[in-house]
From TrEMBL:
It comes from the Bacteria. Belongs to the L/F-transferase family. SUPFAM superfamilies: Acyl-CoA N-acyltransferases (Nat). This is Leucyl/phenylalanyl-tRNA--protein transferase. It catalyses: L-phenylalanyl-tRNA(Phe) + an N-terminal L-alpha-aminoacyl-[protein] = an N-terminal L-phenylalanyl-L-alpha-aminoacyl-[protein] + tRNA(Phe); N-terminal L-arginyl-[protein] + L-leucyl-tRNA(Leu) = N-terminal L-leucyl-L-arginyl-[protein] + tRNA(Leu) + H(+); N-terminal L-lysyl-[protein] + L-leucyl-tRNA(Leu) = N-terminal L-leucyl-L-lysyl-[protein] + tRNA(Leu) + H(+). Coiled coil: none annotated.
Length: 212
């Protein structure tokens, strides 16, 4: 396994272990994070452990034109129960994602250091957030890295039923209008599968990622 040092470099994704880990260590600097995402790599680790860098194969992705919106979700969106904004409060979204419990997980991988680094990426225009409001209350949200032709989804949260789905669907529809090639969903979940995401070979994902 590749051990990172102060040099900002990653090995080829072909060197990834069977479980999907490509490297350990390094830091969460803006430069390293941007290189990681552009290389098809992302950080995912528990608080108190070394930074783990992943590039799973296959890769879960959503092609915007394949987005599935159920009849019930379409009704909810048409009722305009929620208001959706973009980049209104990035810090509040990532903080809420960090505080939201996940089934089968003891804690969160979104540490204070990660929050600080991703907020810096947001300030520089590389990370975006989608906020879903019910009145003046933040009901749900999504954040991730924007590479210009690929959106790398990082996390979402919901405090009101269907709020995060509304935010995700609104974001994907926006990306479709702007001709984005895909949304990187990283790993399989049944929730993402229900929205139209599917697994593709990592090699295909990297090929699309390099098309800028």
């Amino acid at each position: 396994m590749f051990i990172l040092d102060k040099n900002i470099v990653f090995p080829p994704v072909s060197k990834t272990s069977d479980v999907g880990i490509i490297a350990v260590g390094g830091d969460l600097s803006v430069e390293r994070l941007l290189l990681a995402y552009k290389s098809g790599i992302f950080p995912w680790f528990e608080k108190g452990s070394p930074i783990l860098w992943w590039s799973p194969d296959p890769r879960m992705v959503l092609f915007p034109e394949e987005l599935k919106i159920s009849r019930s979700m379409r009704k909810i969106m048409n009722k305009e129960v929620f208001t959706v904004t973009l980049n209104r409060n990035f810090r509040a979204v990532i903080q809420a994602c960090a505080e939201t419990g996940r089934k089968g997980q003891k804690g969160t991988w979104i540490t204070d250091d990660m929050i600080a680094s991703y907020c810096k990426l947001h300030e520089l225009g590389h990370a975006i957030s989608v906020e879903v409001w019910q009145g003046d209350t933040l009901a749900g949200g999504v954040y991730g890295i924007d590479l210009g032709h690929v959106f790398c989804g990082e996390s979402m949260f919901t405090r009101v039923s269907n709020a995060s789905k509304v935010g995700f669907i609104t974001l994907v529809e926006k990306l479709k209008r702007e001709k984005y090639k895909l949304v990187d969903c990283q790993v399989y979940t049944s929730h993402l599968d229900s929205l139209g995401a599917r697994e593709i070979p990592r090699e295909d994902f990297i090929k699309i990622l390099k098309e800028s």
